[in-house]
Amino acid sequence: MSRTFTPVQQVEQSIVKRYHEELWSPFCKAIRRYRLILPGDKIAVCISGGKDSMLMAKMMQMLHRHTEIPFDVEYLIMDPGYNEINRKKVESNARFLEIPYTIFESDIFEVANAQDRNPCFLCARMRRGCLYKKAQEMGCNKIALGHHFDDVIGTTVMGMFYGGQLQAMPPKLRAKNFPGMELIRPLYMVHEEDVIAWKNANELSFIQCACRFTENCTMCDNGQGGSKRQEIKQLLKKLKKENPTIEDNIFASIHTLQLDTMVGWKYRGQEHSFLELCEKTENEPC
Asked: What is the mean pLDDT of the chain?
């Protein structure tokens, strides 16, 4: 007699079975490879309401249920000023996925959208600060965000094209203004196309971007925004047709930086030059 699964159990089964190689395996691999979760951690899993953070929350819940690593988890939703439809959508999805969440309000959208320049940068910075503060109040030492493999690649290319620097999005980092707090990215090795495939296979619907600049398309999930990040995404999509491994190569490159070929670099805010190495060692490209 075959077992009958509840809707949320079907979602969980799809993660560990149908999408094991695409979702569960890279999720667990990133946690091991980058030591994202350590014994005694209490992690605030931050849910924005999009497909990525919701999937991350569900997988963190499943990991917490079965792992031998002793850690605690809280599921945190910040309402930065959602309209009523988006607020209800985020909460209903969390309830459907049986994720026990804590929700709190802020006025981030109101403050950020009043700015003429760089409202998105300000919004992201304020949101992270609010999440750190709330998580710390709840006794957490880490927050988990839903950035995935494609975000890592996009950030690297954007830094080169528009920032004039080689930089990456690290899988974890310490908070500058919140002592003892860290940020981790459990979806670091998960591809966005696989998240979308999982979402569609389970007939799930999430908000895309609840910002007031774009909330008219929050349910469309079409990824056709006009931002620089979307330009890079479309460019990589074209290049991938010519070279299917291009994204994997970019990802590998941030793990294998050849520092002895770099002309300059910055470490902990201090600039360095290859000339420093030339003065200390022989056979350097001086």
From this structure: 88
Q: In 3D, which of 222, 209, 199 has the Cα closest to residue 86?
A: 209
Average pLDDT over residues 97-112: 86
CA angle, 122 then 30 then 211, to 5°: 25
The band of 81, judged by pLDDT with boundaries at 50, 70 and 90, is: confident
